[in-house]
Structure formats: C-alpha cells, structure tokens
Amino acid sequence: MKFSTFAFVVCFSFYSGLALALEFQANLGLDSAYKTKVEEWSFARTTLEPQVEESFMGDSLKAKVSFLGWYNGVERLDSSQNSPVREWAFFPKDNYLSLETKEYELSLGTRVFSHGETFGWLKPDWINGRIYDDSFFMDEDLAKIGVLSAYFKVLFGQKSVELFFMPCAQVFSIPQPWGSFSFEKTQNFSTACFETTEFGMRFSDFWEQMGVEIKLMYLHHLSRVPVLSYDVAGNRYLIHQNEMDTFFLSANKAFGDWVLRGDFTYSLEFPFASESSLAVETEQTLGAHIGVDRSWGEENIFLFQTHTYYNKSFKTLLLASAHLEYSIFDPLLTELTLLRGMNNDSYWYEAALAYRIFDLWKLKTSVSHLEIKEGPFGLQSPKEWRYYAQLSYQY
Amino acid sequence: MSLLFVFVSVEAVALTADEIVEQTDRVRNPQESFVMEVLVDSSGSKDTNQFEVYTKGKDKTLIRTLAPRRDKGRNLLMLDTDMWLYIPKLKRSIRVALNQKLSGEAANGDISRMNWSGDYKAKILKVNKTSWLLDLQESKKGLTYARVQVEVEKKTFRPLEAQYMTKNGKTLKVAKFSEYKNLAGALRPSKIVIQDAVRKDKVSTISIVSMKIENLADNKFHRNNLK
C-alpha cells in the first residue's frame, strides 16, 4: 500500500434536522477549490444530501431514504488536461426499511455502517465502499456509499451482536482519465449479486469495572483502499481489488479529559503495490491505529494518532496524524490538521477556518499543502497547494 | 413521598450530612426513572439548547438533543462516569470525556448527574439558623466536579446555592437553584443558574420545562442504541 492511497481526504460535511411529520434532514454545499501546480484545475461543486425518515407502528417500523448527489462545474486551466472529476454524480446512502424493538433491529436495503474507534484518515472502516471519483475534497464519511445489505442487531445488557450480509460486490468508483493517464479496474471476482458476497459479525461489550469498551468483528469483504500498479505498455494505471478476510479488534478507555482509542486488524490477502509499482501483491497484514484525544469546552478537540501496517514485504508503514479544532469564539472554529509519514517525507498539512453565519449557514475556507514522496495516484506534482471554500446551508 | 419531606421540619432531628444530601436529591428529582425536557440558555449565544433527558437510577442517563437544529441527533449517553456521544455525520457513538460541556457553562454532568448522594461523601461545614452548608468530596473518579459546597435549606431540604470546586477547593462555578414548581409530583427547582466563578459574565440557565416519571427499559441506555 502506497502512501498516496491515503490522500483521499479533506473535510466537509454537515448535518442538521427538522422535525416534521416526516423526519427530514439535508445539507446543501457549494464548494470551490483551486489547485496550483502543473495540472492546475479549479472547480465549483454543488452537493446535495437529503434524507427523509418516517416511522410507523409507534417507531417500530422505520423507512429511511437518503442519497448524495453533486454537480461539478470544472474549469480546466490547461486545455490538454482531461477532467479529473465527472460532472454529475449520484450515490445511494441510507435507503432501507427497519424493524426495531427494544432488543432487536432488522433492516433491509442500502445502508451506511460505521466501524472503528479512531478518527478519519486511515481507520479500518471497511464495511462500506467509498467514492474514489476524485482524490480530493471528499470527507471519508461523506464518501461512504450505502451498501445493499441485510442487517440484524441484538442488544443484551451492555453487549450487542450484529450480523451483516451484503449480497452484491461493492466495486470501486474510480476517477475518470486524468491528464495523459487512464485508470482501469482489475479484479478476479464476479460482480454478479449472490456470486461475490460480503458478510460479517460484530460483537461489542462494555466492561464497566475497567471502563473499557471493546468491539470484535470478522468481515469477509472486498479490499476497500484502491491499490494501483502501472501498466507501462498501456500507459495506464490498473486499480486492483480483491476478496479478503479481516479480523478486527477495537477498544477505548477514558482517562479524565482524555480518551485512548485503538483499532487493530489482521487481514488475510491484504493488497499492496510492489516496490516497483508495476504489480500488486497480497499478504497477511497487521494493522494498528492508536489514538488519544482530549476534548474540552463545547467544540474544542485535540487528537493524535499513529497508523501502522506490518507485513513481511513492507515490514512497517507508519504514519502519524494530529488534528486540532478550537473555537476562538462561538461562531468561529479553527482547524489544523497534519498527516505525516514517519518513515518518509510525505506530508499533508491543512489549516481551516469555519464560520457559522447563522444557525444553518456555514462558511469554511481552508488551505492545504501536500507533498507525496511515494505513489502515483493523482499525484503527478510532488508539492502542491490547494485552496478550498465551502458555503453550506442545512435544512 | 417527596412532598412529605418538604413539609416536615427537621430542625430537632439530628441528621448526618449524607442523610441531608439524600433528602436534597429527593427534592431535586424523583428516585424512580423519569423523563424531563430541559432548555439551556447561555450568555453570548443566541441559541436556546433543548434536550430531552431520560434518567434511570443514579447511573444511567440519556440526553437527546432537540435544538438547535444543527445539533439535533447529537445524543449523549452516560453510564455512571462513562459517556458516549452519537455523531449523526459519523453514524456512530464515540466515547467522550465526562467533563465535556453541553452548552455554555453547563457541563454534561450538570444535567445527567442530578444526584449527589453516592457520588460524594458529605460533611457538615456550618450550621446556620435556616440552612446547612455541606462539603461534598468525590467518592469516585471521573465526576464532573471533584468537590461541591452546597447550602441546603433546613426546613425543606431545598438546595439554595452550590459551589462547584476543584479538589483543592478552587471554585469553578456557582449554581443557584430557584423557581420551585410541581414537577413529577413534588416541588422541585425548575431553574438552575450556573455562573463561572472568574468570568462572572459567563452564565448558563438550565430550565426544566417538564418532568414525568416513566418506566424506562435498560436497552434505552445502550451505547449502540443512541441514534
């Protein structure tokens, strides 16, 4: 796995709600971005993420509908470049029927799940696939695509058991041709429903005496992070995806103002690019994501995390990330983010200011500096600055 | 039962500090499981925060955020001194520290921990003509406030004023309890004004709009059931 595959991050997303007879939530965002290097391009994206929820039979039966759609107005500064992002996009989010009692929940339909204790970036939140149309300006959680699934949850005491069954393979949504490069998927599994299925079971408990929460999960799934190899003859990138099995252990414990979190994975058939980037290999791989965070006040948080993958081929791949959100005064929030490779000089820094104009209006601007020493994906320029602005309205 | 305590004069009865605290807790809220609607107004904020609070026993509280709209769905669960916050955007509940503020000067613990007995060991600091001054020292780790000094009216066991302190006795906030009205079958304080001890202009007002006794299932207080 190359460092470049970790670059699919920049934060925006908002939520709000309005209680009507139907529960309706939506966010509408207008984003503008500008990138400064050889492949310079800028775009303005209009995003819509509506969500409607209706309850029947005294909240026992729920129906939920939501999707994510956007329109990209792309201005290419270099006419020889192809658009790196498609103009229109539409993705399902939560579209399911659920039957809920005090102890049980059963749902059918497309659904966005969540897994992991650590935040953002590299956490092993692999139940859902993500949107990889463009490598920038997509918050990791917003980028999740709802997966067609049957889901069952049972609660007993402070324990819970969840079962997941996804009958249709979640294949990557990949970028359109970029510059002189093209991308092509490679996979050795059938994409027909009920031929390649994903499934898993998650158990969670809270050990009250020790104040420790744990989650154990087994998941048979498709690899979630695109791994690329370069096809010299075809002058194209091959995006590799394969079936794999992963065992997860997550835990957290609070110490006063601080919370310690950890996500550990043991994956069979974990894919990664070879040293030459000309092939993709799979190996048993251990992953460890350990983080500590301190929250204070209403909106202030500082978190620091390390992310490690280990297998026989690349031994260790270690990154560190830090994030600070600090409210200078009520409507103004500052954010600083750092992602740094510990065994290479790759990094990503971002500074952002978010200002809540009214209750539901928010303006966010950010500047980020990115340098990737390894990896080819979308990173033809070694150093670059990006500027980003978003105006959002929630209703 | 609570009404009885309100009208019984206890001046002649020698009560221990812990017994006084227990009686004061009974005035503040029912000992059965209950649901209340709470509004929090804070200085410097145009928003009124609205919460629906479910409490069972002394160690289980669920706070559902109803307003402002941008925070709707950010629900809090407290199990003893452990706390989780549901983030709608993330679609998951995350572990948070207990001292995280709910709104303005109001900490999560100001709403979710409405019983002092069990959490604190009490002693009587001073006996006035009409009130006791009690010193409450934490008896467990992880509480919002390590120490509380509270003045309790002798005749009614009503809390009048509480100073929330560090372990060393430095006052962090001052809370005043007022506007007693009939809530869940007894006269209880419906307004709690919390003021920062240093920045006097930083004030939050907790208003209890309604309170009713309700049988609540244990699974309502499950961290995987917060959405």
Report on the architecture of this protein.
The complex is a heterodimer of chains A (395) and B (227). Chain A is mainly β and 395 residues long. Chain A has strands at residues 18-19, 23-35, 41-56, 61-76, 88-100, 104-111, 147-156, 159-166, 182-187, 198-207, 212-222, 227-231, 236-241, 243-255, 258-273, 280-296, 300-310, 317-329, 332-341, 347-356, 361-371, 383-394. Mean pLDDT of chain A is 79; it is low at 1-22 and 375-381. With 227 residues, chain B is mainly beta. Chain B has one domain (2-215): outer membrane lipoprotein receptor (LolB), chain A, CATH 2.50.20. The longest helix of chain B has 12 residues, at 17-28. Chain B starts with a helix and ends in a 14-residue tail after the last strand. Chain A binds chain B through residues 13-19, 25, 102-103, 112-115, 117, 141-142, 153, 155, 157-158, 160, 162, 204, 206, 208, 211, 213, 252-254, 256-259, 261, 294-298, 329-330, 356, 359-360, 394, and chain B through 44-45, 47, 66, 68-70, 72-73, 79-83, 88-92, 94-104, 142, 217-220, 222-225.
